[in-house]
Write a structure and sequence with these properties.
Elements lengths: L2 E7 L4 E8 L3 H9 L1 H7 L7 E6 L6 E7 L5 E12 L3 E9 L12 E10 L2 E10 L2 H9 L2 H9 L2 H5 L2
Antiparallel strand pairs: 1-2, 2-8, 3-4, 4-5, 5-6, 6-7, 7-8
Helix pairs in contact: 1-2
Family: Belongs to the AHA1 family.
Pfam families: AHSA1 (PF08327)
Protein name: Activator of Hsp90 ATPase homologue 1/2-like C-terminal domain-containing protein
């Protein structure tokens, strides 16, 4: 399992996940840069993703929906803040309505994904920062730790292809 640590800090308003992959950084970067690969790992296995828009450039937007086991759809979006290919990127991540407009009542996080290569392996650090402790607690209660960990753990299978 690639996920090595998961920490949340209600005082710092952060959720940090660290994972290690047996692949070079450029290959891990491609998982996020290619929408078809991103679909295979964004969301837990029982909620596969469909990427609708994918503009991984500063000011760009990524929109997607995840489909649950009963066919229910859950939409979300990324607003890309900065990109440092292949070292990482920063984006706002939020919940959306079916037309990809933000759901104002649900929290938005600012995410910093970074990838550091060391002797052919890549350490990925995923840091999500929330505006309030209540927002962080809400996503923790929704199962974000389990969902994000199972999603990240799918990357190994994709990298092996």
């Amino acid at each position: 399992m690639p996920v090595s640590t998961v920490e949340h800090d209600l005082d710092a308003l952060t959720l940090t996940i660290t994972a290690e992959f047996a692949a070079p950084r450029d290959r891990v970067w491609q998982v996020y840069a290619d929408p078809r690969q991103l679909e295979k790992i964004w969301g837990p296995p029982e909620f596969p993703a469909t990427v609708v828009d994918h503009d991984l450039t500063p000011g760009g937007r990524v929109t997607y929906f995840m489909t649950g086991p009963e066919g229910e759809k859950f939409a979300g979006y990324w607003e890309i803040i900065s990109v440092d290919e292949p070292s990482g990127f920063r984006f706002a991540d939020g919940f959306a309505n079916e037309d990809f407009t933000p759901i104002e009542s649900l929290p938005v996080s600012t995410n910093d994904f970074s990838f550091v290569e060391d002797n052919g392996t890549t350490v990925a650090t995923y840091v999500s920062t929330y505006e309030t402790a209540e927002g962080l607690q809400k996503v923790l209660d929704m199962g974000v730790v389990e969902g994000a960990s199972s999603a990240i753990n799918q990357i190994d299978d994709l990298l092996a292809v």
